[in-house]
Amino acid sequence: MSTLHVVSHSPFTDSRLDSCLRICGVNDAILLCGDGAYGLHNAALQTKGVKVFVLAEDMQARNLPLPDWADSVDYPGFVQLSLDYDKVNSWL
Amino acid sequence: MNTLTVGTRTLELDKDGYLVDLNAWSEEVASALAAAEPLALTADHWEILTLLRQFYSEFQLSPATRPLIKYTALKLGPEKGNSLHLNKLFNGTPAKLAAKLAGLPRPTNCL
Amino acid sequence: MSKSLLVISRQAPWSGPGAREALDIVLAGGAFDLPIGLLFLDDGVFQLAPHQDAKAVQQKDLGANLQALGLFGIDEVFACHHSLAERGLTTPASAQPLDSAAISQLIDRYDQVITL
């Protein structure tokens, strides 16, 4: 079973991304959107070894560089991801 | 505004006919609420109303049907804690009607 | 067979509607006999702290509500061990503590997850 975790809060003000990384399974992925895109600056993300996606427009709006350990997706890509994974867990 | 007159008192009811102030409840109020249904309260009814007041003071919420049945079975035994008995007493909608007569808020987890 | 649902409650009890909303989802599902699990994570574990006084902040008693979970048919109640320890809370009687790996497996077991 695999879960796509959607995180939309900045990891620098909020514990969502930390907790998500802690309980993430090996087959899971994290999609960063909104202020969650600032997670690209979070070193812990790449060391965990979980797949990381970022919503392209939120990354562009914030002028964040795309690291080689992450992939960017547009909205159709977001929809495709939500189908590729068994379930979606939005960290509201 | 909905109101219920009991003796000399006028009590406020919400739009569904539930008592607004939990503490305004008395057996007299329950009888007046029942008369409006109309339903004649027997000892079997009173037993459930008392139990519901107890449930509310313990958990601070009105039970939906299933927890009401479970709680009744727990406290009064399975011959009373079953849907047949409770449906018969409260016209087929025990959670809603019994909560109303016991002066509790409308159960929120009940359609 | 209905789809199973895991509700992850991670808001502190009196900080906003989050804790109440998570519980309402769980109770509503339980009332309809849906297979539901509840996990307290992050500040959500503060909901389990003993001797809180909801009346002091004019709120409904969430702690009392939580005691009704069993009657609503909710037997799968868990708390994140890491979150409890981080906050100096002891293991509550009403929730089974799980470490991070076990939480990962828990999420796998359910068809759907809601995090509030």
UniProtKB/TrEMBL annotation, chain A:
Gene3D superfamilies assigned to the protein according to its UniProt record, in alphabetical order: DsrEFH-like
Pfam families: DsrH
GO biological process, one term: tRNA wobble position uridine thiolation
InterPro entries: DsrEFH-like, Sulphur_relay_TusB/DsrH
SUPFAM superfamilies per UniProt: DsrEFH-like
One term under GO cellular component: sulfurtransferase complex
Name by which UniProt lists this protein: Sulfur relay protein DsrH
Native source organism of the sequence: Pseudomonas extremorientalis
TrEMBL record, chain B:
Catalytic residue positions: 110 (cysteine persulfide intermediate)
UniProt cross-references to Pfam families, sorted A to Z: DsrC (PF04358)
Subcellular localization: Cytoplasm
UniProtKB keywords: Cytoplasm, Transferase
InterPro entries listed in its UniProt record: DsrC-like_C, DsrC-like_dom_sf, DsrC-like_N, DsrC/TusE
UniProt record, GO biological process: tRNA wobble position uridine thiolation
E.C. no: 2.8.1.-
GO molecular function list: sulfur carrier activity; transferase activity
Top EC class, one word: transferase
Major localization listed first in the record, in broad terms: cytoplasm
One cellular component (GO) term of this entry: cytoplasm
Role this protein plays: Part of a sulfur-relay system.
Family to which the UniProt record says this protein belongs: Belongs to the dsrC/tusE family.
Protein name: Sulfurtransferase
From TrEMBL, chain C:
InterPro entries assigned to the protein according to its UniProt record, in alphabetical order: DsrEFH-like, Sulphur_relay_DsrE/F-like, Sulphur_relay_TusC/DsrF
Keyword Chloroplast (UniProt): no
MF (Gene Ontology): transferase activity
Gene3D superfamilies registered for this protein in UniProt: DsrEFH-like (3.40.1260.10)
Superkingdom, natural source: Bacteria
Record keywords: Transferase
Keyword Calcium carried by entry: no
PANTHER family attached to this UniProt entry: PROTEIN TUSC
Family as reported in the entry's similarity comment: Belongs to the DsrF/TusC family.
Protein name, per record: Sulfurtransferase TusC
Organism annotation: Pseudomonas extremorientalis
